[in-house]
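It is worth pausing here to work through a concrete case rather than discussing structure prediction in the abstract. The textbook approach is simple: state the sequence, then state the predicted structure, then interpret. We follow exactly that order.
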Amino acid sequence: MKENTQIKVDSKQVVITENNAGQRIDNFLIRYFGKIPNSRIYQMLRKGEVRVNKRRTRQSYKLEVNDVVRIPPVYISEKHTLTPNQSIQKKILNSIIFEDEGLIAINKPPGIVVHGGSKQSYGVIEIFRALNDDYRSLELVHRLDKDTSGCLILAKGIPILRKLQEILRDRKSVKTYLALLSGSFTESEKIINKPLRKNIIRSGERVVTIDKNGKSASTIFYRKRLFSDATLVKIELLTGRTHQIRVHSASMGNFVIGDKKYGDKAVNLKFKKKGLSRMFLHSESLNFISPITKKRTIIKAPMEKSLVNFLEKLD
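Step two, the predicted structure:
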């Protein structure tokens, strides 16, 4: 049996310059190696094989100028190089809803992660990079959960990435979502201000919880349509914490329908029988000042047909 050709990448010390400053260490390594599974990248980080300034580092660490990154020796095998198939590449390409010289915005389909990891061979960013060399420099500006659809922005390079992330953190930028919540939402508008803490272990999995020692988080819920046993709401995020909408909704007793992590199993089963096949959470729009034109830009992502049809069915 013919053995796979393996290439050894020797250990190396890399000094970070302005070109890579501000980039997450996991993204930097994925770019650096190119042909090894993302799962191996995250394994290196978990085991401490990769060091920044002689110390272990988290995958979310953002590199700074003059950081010294220790690259471990790695064998690259072509057998383990996974490329997104043509169908998924076409799906992502067709999901583009806006593009200019600085960014690309897509209406992310549900069921696709934004970035490959230990349990996912590839995500949106890897799919784009597989399309052609023009997309090799794309970087994720923000994130959406795997089962959340809608507006997702990717920057064309590190400099524009930094500007966009700063702009989206500004209160003048507006992020809205649509969600179907369980039960009747009696108020036309409700603001939830509850701090969130992430990576709490519960039943063997990492979750986000409301905790007085967590980071501040604010969400505004606007009632749009009231059904007999559910409410369609428009949501404005004043902060951008992990799983913010899902946890704040659950804290009110109005769960995001279809949410397997923070939702209600009985509610999910009930609506699954009615025909809902996914979590009903959609990033509807992003409203911000473009770093390119310096003008206000509004990007809207329409809900997929299955969600629209489901709402009509509830009527």
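Step three, interpretation. The domain at 86-165 is CATH 3.30.2350.10 (Pseudouridine synthase). The two ends are 61 Å apart (CA to CA).
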